[in-house]
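Cross-posting from the modeling subforum.

Setting up a comparison between two proteins and wanted a second pair of eyes on the formatting. Protein 1 (sequence, then structure tokens):
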Amino acid sequence: MALDVELLTRCLDETDQEIIRVGRDRHEHLRENTKLAAVFLLLLRCVSLFRSMMKLAQSQRLDAFDAVRRAYLEGWLLAFQFRIDGERGDAGKWLASRGGSWMAEIFMLEEYAKGRGHDAPDLGNDYGELSELAHPTRAAAENSAALTLWRLGLNADAVTVEQAIASLDEGMPAMLYRLLWLVLDEDVSLVPLGVDEKNMPTAMKFCEKRQQR
């Protein structure tokens, strides 16, 4: 099924506009050194990178997509960690640009998801696979070579590349749902963001439909 770029873009527009509104009205335009400011900054990065991912998916630049997706996942994981109430002073270290402070504790996030009664996604495996494709490994180089040959019409494995493109079209909405969930979920175990659902009607409907699947 073709990617509904218009729908996903409306969801992203509502999300970053609401984050900016809350940041402007309550958090000194995100200039304050607080956990919430850190979460909002990371969420804005996620929205921006997601837009780039859509452009790359549309242009079928799958190797570049994987590299940007890894950066997106890193931002999402860290925003997730900072939203969990009671986590240590990691947000402060990140705001102070301490070395290594950008690395999320993936195992802890998986345990949190299990504690909420969710089927915990294999975040560690996702991150590991994307790390391999984002760095100049043999697998990443062979991936880029296969895409180049495919564009030139010389790739005998064209079906595999086309399946990967189709998989992206199916996977992008699921990735967006995770991002919107992180913005909208107000479970007591999470630090409240104070966003107004009324300002995100398209995003809300999108999430409701995903939850019914």
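Protein 2 (same layout):
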Amino acid sequence: MPKKIKGHTIIKLPKYNKFWVYDRSYGHDIIINTDYGKTTIQCMWNDRMRGDNGRVKNKVAIDGKKR
């Protein structure tokens, strides 16, 4: 179970082997491999998105104003 300390969450993963970071349309996935399996952390933006060209941009409402 994650441990919270003053606004931070600490997750201890014993027997850590390797990690990968992937760019996604919603943000990033961080995948951590341990001897016990893989853990995936999905980091999602609430006001940004990745465009068709792969670059990050702000989300814009229909009226052209930033959400």
